[in-house]
Amino acid sequence: xxxxxxxxxxxxxxxxxxxxxxxxxxxxxxxxxxxxxxxxxxxxxxxxxxxxxxxxxxxxxxxxxxxxxxxxxxxxxxxxxxxxxxxxxxxxxxxxxxxxxxxxxxxxxxxxxxxxxxxxxxxxxxxxxxxxxxxxxxxxxxxxxxxxxxxxxxxxxxxxxxxxxxxxxxxxxxxxxxxxxxxxxxxxxxxxxxxxxxxxxxxxxxxxxxxxxxxxxxxxxxxxxxxxxxxxxxxxxxxxxxxxxxxxxxxxxxxxxxxxxxxxxxxxxxxxxxxxxxxxxxxxxxxxxxxxxxxxxxxxxxxxxxxxxxxxxxxxxxxxxxxxxxxxxxxxxxxxxxxxxxxxxxxxxxxxxxxxxxxxxxxxxxxxxxxxxxxxxxxxxxxxxxxxxxxxxxxxxxxxxxxxxxxxxxxxxxxxxxxxxxxxxxxxxxxxxxxxxxxxxxxxxxxxxxxxxxxxxxxxxxxxxxxxxxxxxxxxxxxxxxxxxxxxxxxxxxxxxxxxxxxxxxxxxxx
Amino acid sequence: xxxxxxxxxxxxxxxxxxxxxxxxxxxxxxxxxxxxxxxxxxxxxxxxxxxxxxxxxxxxxxxxxxxxxxxxxxxxxxxxxxxxxxxxxxxxxxxxxxxxxxxxxxxxxxxxxxxxxxxxxxxxxxxxxxxxxxxxxxxxxxxxxxxxxxxxxxxxxxxxxxxxxxxxxxxxxxxxxxxxxxxxxxxxxxxxxxxxxxxxxxxxxxxxxxxxxxxxxxxxxxxxxxxxxxxxxxxxxxxxxxxxxxxxxxxxxxxxxxxxxxxxxxxxxxxxxxxxxxxxxxxxxxxxxxxxxxxxxxxxxxxxxxxxxxxxxxxxxxxxxxxxxxxxxxxxxxxxxxxxxxxxxxxxxxxxxxxxxxxxxxxxxxxxxxxxxxxxxxxxxxxxxxxxxxxxxxxxxxxxxxxxxxxxxxxxxxxxxxxxxxxxxxxxxxxxxxxxxxxxxxxxxxxxxxxxx
Lengths: 511, 453
Description:
By secondary structure, chain A is mainly alpha-helical. Chain A contains 21 helices and 7 strands. Chain A has helices spanning 23-27, 37-53, 75-82, 87-93, 97-107, 129-141, 184-193, 198-211, 215-222, 246-259, 268-291, 311-339, 342-348, 353-365, 377-394, 399-406, 424-434, 441-452, 458-464, 472-488, 505-510, and strands at residues 300-301, 410-411, 419-420, 438-440, 454-455, 492-496, 499-503. Chain B is an alpha+beta fold. Chain B has 2 domains: 37-276, no CATH class; 291-451, no CATH class. In chain B, a hairpin with a 4-residue loop joins β3 (348-354) and β4 (359-367). Chain B is globular.
């Protein structure tokens, strides 16, 4: 494994922020577990469309970590779709089309977040109130988080186009409280700014977005007045601490592969979302390993779910636990590094040690202002450790678990413990990203290991595991089960005892 | 070999032929025979012929064995050998192998030989679960002849579960779930048939009369206990259930052709429609005749239900619908296009047999020359038929078929878009959508909605 790249200096706004800068220094500002991969993707699209509009997509023209963008609010659209329980009621209780419109428009005058709400523009777009209701139902049916119990300002229209994008808002619909748009989408955007493949990616992304069916974006546009220009203030302070990292490049390559598939426009999105989640998870673990100076590559032993307990499941559970602890260990190592640094050691000597140490912490991790414990450097450091771990555990430390489960990598199926057991959907995504036309199964397994550290078969497991943990038969059975699963998904052709091909059907279609 | 252009090209040609299961490619003067792709049923014909006519069998028979000797009148090996000679057993076994082919599971010749050997010699109590001559008198003396049942051995019933799963042919045959699938009628015959006015004759004919593997003393005793429920012992009940598995397997090979429909033979397998698939689809297409309309209609109805995610009853047109965002969405309410099943303006839906790779193909034509094929495997046929008739998704194999068919839908939508290309709507004009709803009878009732941008 390559050593940790030199971290970039914190952004200029470093002083203005009130929270401590530990997780942020390691992984950026910031990874946020409650922002699940779909929300990451939506936030990314908000940034991307804004920057593309200004002709500077993936460019960071003012230098690293200077991203500044604005996001739309689209409160008319969101009130109609997600804060509007009146449609059925009005449709049933008011017989004529005109009376329906009038009643509904009256009720909607109190729409939240809009001063002097006026929804009458809708009548120009629809021939009848009933048509309007049908379209609203249809758009809702494809929206994200519709059935969840999230606040109405955290529900999103499927990203059919730029008229469908807006940022998450607090329950007063006033400002982005970073609840579900916690900047992880900004991190994702910055990652893609910092890969040599960014021009290819920009071209592929533009092509894909331009070729999607524009009907839906047009329909969504009809649910908004022409002059709805409510927009956020500048969104700044995004920070990604590394100028380059292999994860960024691998993410870009995977996205490129998906964008080039011959599948209908929007079908690519779930794959992009899965891969974004996977690479963010992998980014966190890789950086952790680099911080800890571990020189073995990351490995994720995957069980293809078996009917009963197997050796593979056991090893996978253990390894999951081990990996799950890595980020916390990295935080620990990061703090130890401060403690053993020459600056700190020197500060300890002589009078005023406590004040000098406190200053170091204020400068480096922006912490200590509210410290009220005994004026002793050791105790100060202990308090920081405690505070940092507590904060880490709340959100950043859950990325591995939450993203892993959300993208279908981590599962509890058939057990009480979590482990790596990829779902069919994730397997499909991985296959589409890694198989251009077709390759032999064993090559596919080798590729998954080389690129992601995913281990399915005995050849890869033997490289990763110690002798007493490794069982050839168990892993052979595991890859046989994988073969069956891929076969039943129509992604594998077994030709004889010795030869099976993994095929990407969407490549064949393109021919 | 040097990596010249010719070498690369040759490798590509072989790989293509191999992966795409073809014998030849236009422009290449080569015929490619993939031996592992030989028709399993034909391999079976040759294998069983060779197996049964092996001179060794005659030798043991001529030795005039005594009653309890190998190949004597009570010897299970001899009985199994004789059963294997009966046309009915051969036909059913052959049908199973043929159906494996149509599920894309190819059985190599050594697996067939392994199957035949195990069928004749299998016994769970013998060493390696296979009888040698010295075992026969012991088996007879122990009264466990019924455990050597050919019907059970065909499915590897004499082997341990782990061993069975590791052997290709038993893995394949297990997917039919013969012995575990059943109908009320069959179980009534087996459990309550004895002496019953209506079912008695069946019980007599298929179970009681079979001295070897039918109802023996063990079976009658276990059955009585099971019916009367006197014994609370779980283990005993389990034992009887295991006997039922063997008996159902026996029935699969005993019910004659003429009683197939009446006793719903194929309900003893997971594939209720397998018999129809063999006879009314494959059999008919092989003769160059068209498949009966009700079958095609049923398939179309099944496709419509998968494509729309609704319990739609239409079978004269194929309904292509989407949800707006994913082509793979579960419920699709926006109707894109209807394709006529009967030939009309270049549109049609047909079934045909592809000689080149031996598959049944369902083709949807959008225009002459613009069509999409679906390899109609047995499992897909079963799936579509059940969805059309029962509306429910059979959980055991729903997922893979469902995904396959959604992929087929996106191919159809792509082809449909191809036909539409060049007829793009003028921008700025109203957007029209056909929203699909169903009447109470499940008939499609699209509603047109227009939006003015």
